[in-house]
Structure formats: C-alpha cells, structure tokens
Amino acid sequence: MAKSLLNATSLSARTKLLHQVGVSLYNTSHGFYEEEVKKTLQQFPGGSIDLQKEDNGIGILTLNNPSKMNAFSGVMMLQLLEKVIELENWTEGKGLIVRGAKNTFSSGSDLNAVKALATQQDGVALSMFMQNTLTRFMRLPLISVALIQGRALGGGAEFTTACDFRLMTPESEIRFVHKEMGIIPSWGGASRLVEIIGSRQALKVLSGALKLNSEKALNIGMVEEVLQSSDETKSLEEAQEWLMQFVNGPPEVIRALKKSVCSGRELYLEEALQNERDLLGTVWGGPANLEAIARKGKFNK
C-alpha cells in the first residue's frame, strides 16, 4: 500500500531538490562557475579537513590548521566539500561531530586567501561556493553537533550554525566578527542564526560583534549545553556521549527523521507533509519497525 501511495502524488520541484544528493544552491544560471572557483582556491594551501568514521555511526570532522587557529585555507574549503560528498554517501552514518584541532574551533577564513580575493566578484563567488557546501552539509541525513572548544570566529562561527546542535566548553567563545572586517556573514551564517536565536537576538549578536562566552550563548539559545571539561579529549568524549542519546537506533530511522526535519524547515507545509509521508514509506514495515512491533507484542501478552 505504501508504494502505491508514493506513486499517487508527484513530488514538487522543491521537494525533489531536497531529495537529490549533490544538488547545490547555485550553478551557471546564477553566474557561478564552480570549477573556476576550485582552481582559484587550490592556489591557497595549508591545513586539512580530516574525517573519521566510527563503527557506531558517528563521524568526527576535524578542522585541522592549528598554526592559524584552524582558519580555512582555500584547500581546506575544497576538502570540506569533498568530505561533505563522502558523508552524503555514508549510508551507515547517523551522527557527526565537528571540532577544531588543538582545542580551538576555527578563526574563519585564512587572511592570505582573503587578501588575494579582494574584488567584489571574488567575494561573491566564494560566498556562493561556501553557501553551496554548507547547505549540502545541513541537508546531510546525519544529526550534527559542533563541539566548540576555544574560539569560533567569523566563518568559524558561521560553520557552527550549519550544525543541528552546538556544545561549548566552559572557556570557549563564539563571535561573529564580520562587522569589524567591514563585511557581513557570507557563508549563510546570518540567515541560519536568525533561525536559531530569532531576528532580534541575531541583530544584536551581528551588529554588536558580541563575544558570546558559554554562559551568554546558553542563555540566548545559541548552544544546547556547556560541557564539564575544557580538555580536548574529555570534551570530545562528552560530546560523543551527548550525541549518542539522539542517534541510538537503526541508521535508516535516524536518517529518515533528520530528512523529515529538513523538509519541515525548508519546504512549504503541504510539501513537507507529503515528504514526511513518503519518508514514512521507507521505514514502515521495515526491519526496525517489524522488530519493534514483535518486541512490544511480547510485553502485551
């Protein structure tokens, strides 16, 4: 019956876009030429984006450029896209922790690249590239959490907003410093911040370039919790334990839940409801569903 229902109603163009893996916001019709941007970014080496996929379905994505407070070089931006593509194809994945190496999250963009990409055209092209990447990151069927150790500044602060949740260590700080650089967030951070803390608080945070310590960030709803430890290893263990409560279950169910929430956020209500119905068709009568019914039936006898 489920399959017949799935075929009964065609998906809207917006819903199809959300379903398709690898689809980005911008393409040549918007004046965005990805291969040209990639060639430009390749000229700015340094650091790496490291991905570790655990057997429990949790991945750990590490921003690794400690000599520059894990600032994003051009090559790191390219590698981030590569890791997102890898995660899009990780069917066993359920959750993801994003962190920075050496107890610091990220200071944003590497200034060497920023200075070289000085024209308006360069800035807009870079904005489209990173918005494409982080939007695909947000749509991953993985429950993601940013582990904010040390400082998350500028583009680093923007990256935290692309995660589903944020955790801070006691001595960490989030700060959108864009105004002090004479610009505004360009990786989608302003739009996502409004969704997280509301327009009034977002305006204060952005226009004031406010320093959000763990207490302030918790009070305005920017983060879910402040962890007990600031130690790099211990805080990662705490973050893994925190995330496990949300990814404990079959991958196909966790992934369907994340997809349904994404559709509720991005689609009109009618489209989101249809998408939720279709996602149900992928798990109803599946192994996890049948096992749960059998298990409950035993207790009801």
From TrEMBL:
Biological process terms in GO annotation: fatty acid beta-oxidation
Q: Where in the cell is it found?
A: Cytoplasm, Cytosol
Quote one Gene Ontology molecular function term: methyl/ethyl malonyl-CoA decarboxylase activity
Check the record and name the Gene3D superfamilies matching this protein.
2-enoyl-CoA Hydratase, Chain A, domain 1
List its EC numbers.
4.1.1.94
Alphabetized UniProt keyword annotations: Cytoplasm, Lyase
What EC class does the entry list?
A: lyase
Q: Name one GO cellular component term.
A: cytosol
Provide the family line. Belongs to the enoyl-CoA hydratase/isomerase family.
Q: What does this protein do?
A: Decarboxylates ethylmalonyl-CoA, a potentially toxic metabolite, to form butyryl-CoA, suggesting it might be involved in metabolite proofreading. Acts preferentially on (S)-ethylmalonyl-CoA but also has some activity on the (R)-isomer. Also has methylmalonyl-CoA decarboxylase activity at lower level.
Question: Under what name is this protein listed?
Answer: Ethylmalonyl-CoA decarboxylase
